[in-house]
Design a protein that fits this description.
about 290 residues; mainly alpha
Length: about 290
């Protein structure tokens, strides 16, 4: 891919991904999963995202999720699989996604020709995704495609998100960043979830977060105020460029015109999600 095409693929991903990630901030999926007996919060999140992998242990989840404290993961996995099964979690996850999208987008949008078109384009893009070294993508790729267009689009958005995510973790490893280091640098951009949300959901203490900030200052990646230095910004930029390269195949396969059309359609749906409060502003920003 050229630099322009790579950035276009990233732009498309940013338009599509909120269709998947909206479920992590919505009450409906949590309600569905809690009804199975899972604890709200970390257990619900870890079980729902890990379920495509099967009844895996904590080590597998920590490895594939990358930026979670392993001791935090161990509190909930594999305990979740003594409460319910991955198969039940997947069914509940899809019900929760359905209810979330119905509430936030509305029936008219869900049954529109644009929704069907977007689902077809996104699924077409996933045809070029590869399973090698992409465990979360590969596990989700083995799941059946839902019949309803909005759920088919949600499924495709999940595949595209995990495909890029798996590649991004490889890029972070190449950059020499641990999971918590990657979180602290991401938070320093001011365009990420707050440090409080990262610590609560990933299981890091305030002391661990502060110590990591100090380490990143010593490496010249953060300044004394906790802002990205030029070196830190360059390192993050290099990781994003490598992530783009590793995530090029779906958008090469789709082609420029279809990628632009998917970006337009998904961007419109994601805009509606944001306007409906899918991503509460209190959870985002530096600090």
């Amino acid at each position: 891919m050229t630099t322009f095409e790579a950035s276009t693929g990233r732009h498309c991903h940013n338009a599509v991904s909120p269709l998947h990630t909206s479920v992590y901030f919505a009450p409906e999926p949590a309600d569905e999963l809690a009804a199975l007996g899972l604890e709200r919060g970390a257990m619900v999140y870890l079980a729902s995202r890990a379920a495509p992998l099967g009844a895996v242990d904590a080590g597998t989840v920590t490895a594939t999720f990358y930026n979670f404290n392993h001791e935090h993961v161990q509190r909930y996995i594999p305990a979740a699989w003594t409460v319910t099964t991955p198969e039940e979690v997947l069914t509940a996850r899809l019900r929760g996604a359905d209810r979330t999208l119905q509430r936030l987008l509305g029936k008219e949008t869900l049954t529109s020709t644009e929704m069907t078109e977007a689902a077809e384009l996104a699924l077409h893009a996933t045809e070029a995704c590869r399973r090698e070294a992409r465990p979360l993508y590969a596990a989700n790729a083995d799941l059946p495609v839902p019949e309803e267009p909005h759920l088919a689009l949600w499924h495709a958005a999940t595949l595209l998100r995990e495909h890029r995510g798996d590649g991004h973790l490889a890029a972070l490893a190449v950059a020499g960043l641990s999971g918590i280091e990657a979180l602290v640098l991401h938070n320093a951009t001011g365009r990420a979830p707050t440090s409080a949300l990262f610590m609560r959901t990933r299981g890091w203490s305030a002391e661990q977060w502060a110590a990591t900030r100090d380490q990143l200052r010593e490496r010249g990646l953060l300044d004394e105020a906790g802002n990205l230095t030029q070196t830190g910004a360059s390192l993050r930029g290099e990781a994003e460029v490598l992530t783009d390269r590793l995530d090029a195949a779906p958008y090469d396969h789709l082609g420029p015109a279809a990628t632009a059309r998917l970006t337009e359609l998904a961007g419109s749906f994601s805009g509606t999600l944001r306007a409906a409060g899918a991503f509460p502003a209190v959870h985002f920003g530096k600090g």
